Amino acid sequence: PQAVYRKDYKPPPYLIERVHLTFVLNEDSTRVLSRLSFKPNYDGEAPPPLPLDGRKDVKLVAVKVAGEALAADSYELTDKKLTLSGLPKGAFEVEIETEIKPQENTSLEGLYKSSGNFVTQCEAEGFRGITFFLDRPDVMAKYTTRVEAAKEPYPVLLSNGNLLDSGDLPDGRHFAVWEDPFPKPCYLFALVAGSLSLKEDTFTTRSGRSITLRIYAEAKDIDKVGHAMRSLQKAMKWDEDVFGLEYDLDLFNIVAVSDFNMGAMENKSLNIFNSRLVIASPATSSDLDFARVEGVVAHEYFHNWTGNRVTCRDWFQLTLKEGLTVFRDQEFSADMNSRAVKRIDDVTRLRTAQFAEDSGAMSHPIRPDKYIKMDNFYTLTVYEKGAEIVRMYNTLLGKEGFRKGMDLYFQRHDGQAVTCDDFRAAMADAKGRDLSAFAAWYGQAGTPQVTVAGEYDAAARTFTLSASQRTPPTPGQSDKAPVPIPIAVGLLGADGQELPLHLKGHENGAAPTTEVLLLEGAQQEFVFTEVSERPVPSLLRGFSAPVKLEVEGQDEEQLRFLLAHDSDPFCRWEAGQRLLRSLLMALYAAAADTAKGESVEERVAGAGGVPEALVGALRAVLDDPSLDGAFVAAAISLPSASELIDDIPGVDPVVLHDVRQYVARQLAEQLRPELEAAVKRTDSAPGEAYSPDAASAARRALKNRALYYLGELGDAEVGADLLRRTREATNMTDHIAALAALIDHPGAERDTALQEFYEAWKGEPLVLLKWIGIQAGAHVPGNLGAVKGLLGHPAFALSNPNMCYALFLSFLRSTPNFHAADGSGYAFLADSILQVDKVNRQVAARMTGSSAFTSVRKFDARRQGLMRAQLQRILAQDGLSENVYEIASSSLQ
Ligand code: DPP
Ligand code: ZN
Q: Where does the record place the Peptidase M1 alanyl aminopeptidase Ig-like fold domain (predicted)?
């Protein structure tokens, strides 16, 4: 397979001004007629050849240039390209007729069928699976699309833009013509033809235009789209209020489909969504589902400006639209819910999954330098780390400065396909600030490690922070340069109050309680003056940069102090996490030392177990009714294993898992009265109606976290209570949480709860995803047999991406089974990847890329050998997709 390199970017030799598409949809095949108006974009006199992208399953029926059928020597057709030559000078038209078979398309790229409906997914390169085209984002054209289909099975015919015309055709067929007035790249093209129900509402923009909002879903789900509709309205309002951005057409459609590779797709005015991110009801969806629907509906809507009006010049720039749009959706969700909890959740996700990616075999900068399949680079790095880079601009420029930068970005680039450098330039120019050093964040992979030490000089009343940074080498990048790192800092006095800050060189009369230090070099010092007492520093407030921070000389007493007093909720939570992390690291060291006792339990207990001071600090948090319940739930949660693994060379993941479980059990035992009190305090009143609002969700978060800990006790009384809770739950949040608390504890309650859950929800595929995921992720030893059994269960379908994600990705989290010492878990994953790859290469690649296979080197020698053997087996497979090949081959290097 051939890699594409960022440095090789060249503008296209021709541009396309107008696209006229006609889709004749039939059961046996679909005809696509495409009429394209080209204009020259080359230098010089002689028209160069025109290479159009295609795919071998797109059958070329006819091609004409300027109305003439092409002679055989004027075009060349290969598996991936249709190249036209001998073209006229100046502008010309090309007509192409192709035939495709959407009903056989299981890859879900291009045009395919889901639950009997025709739908498209073109990002990144699906459009070339429909017709031959300049399938690249810097070719922006105006589209008119005519769709023809049988009326009875496909009453709804949709495409981008405004409906121009529609009507009946002979033989029970009908048509619709859509026109999109905004130029767009083909990855934003969309078409839907099917039998769908509709819910309609409106939104009045700030300039007084009334926008029609429509959400389409299967009839059985249409009563569950209200939350998505309200989320859309809130997002439209928020983008006007915060960024002055108004919607630009009179109609906005969302279509929910059940077979979809990604979460959702921002096609111009016709967003297509994975149904799990549209459909929500209290009985079938958890608080997390409600929050995700709100966040993703907003995300796709926000793309209308950041992505669609201003798009990417090439796919290497993906973070231009994704990092920015994730930042926007994070801020939206923070404004709609608890800002502190949202930040903690986002940081947890970044540290659990993106940091692991950044230190693994697929490590890449937010703007990658090369790819084989672009689909493999829709990653946490491009999205979540990319959002952190945007957040740093916001931190440095302030809210108002960031808004100015956004205004300038749209003023300069509306209607264009641009690069990350253009965005950074707009941010810099808006405030006259030099942000050129930030270029390093776009080119360099890996998580920087920052070390900070503080020194108090009582006589001079100064407090000096010395900060240094280094980024460890990543594959293909051994030497790393310093990157600019904003470090938000506060100083706490002995009474827990914030000290006013006077940063040397920054004196301007104000004495804020948080200062943003900018660490630009490898090493730098910052001096605070007029510091009246020895302070406790609160560092990296709000997680002001995506780095790993080590604070020299920060002892447990200081961390407990910060956990009790810090006014910055992120740092407060972080103090607790640091205490837990160092405990887990110490206990792991003991547990891994087989000379120290027979069992993990014995070795860990010999090392002192969980210290009383830590239990006391967590008890104080748990007992504080003034704290947000979701914050408390996060504060008593253990850091994930994947956050710890990077710091344990040659880790035995099962021992680490056992240590975490041991600590969870110890905490549950020692905090039992407080956990039970928290459940009592937060339990819903009988008959209380469910509401997804942040305050109600926060209560449930605390209750269910407490129940999870209590479940760890494996106590009969608790088991009976959890089973009762699965039966009496009035909403999915509580139902699934009680089941999750039982799932790792074999016994009658567990089996009954699982059985009853299935009976209750067997008609709801979206709910069964939870049922499948919870079983596949269970830690019970020997669970692999049960997981294999699920593959044959009538609820499971290999062709449905959601089902694959629920089963296989959950299994990856079942450490004792996935990392089983005999290699059976790895073999199962490899078998499954190969099986899925034949059906859907993107899903197979996601399974490979999300697994420990991409970080082979981090594990003990025996497991490394077992994983490598499976990777070799995958690579030896005939007909392996380029998607899986790229990830598996990188992982082996
Ligand atoms: N639809 C995906 C997203 O919105 C890819 N653009 O992130
Ligand atoms: Zn996006």
A: 446-551
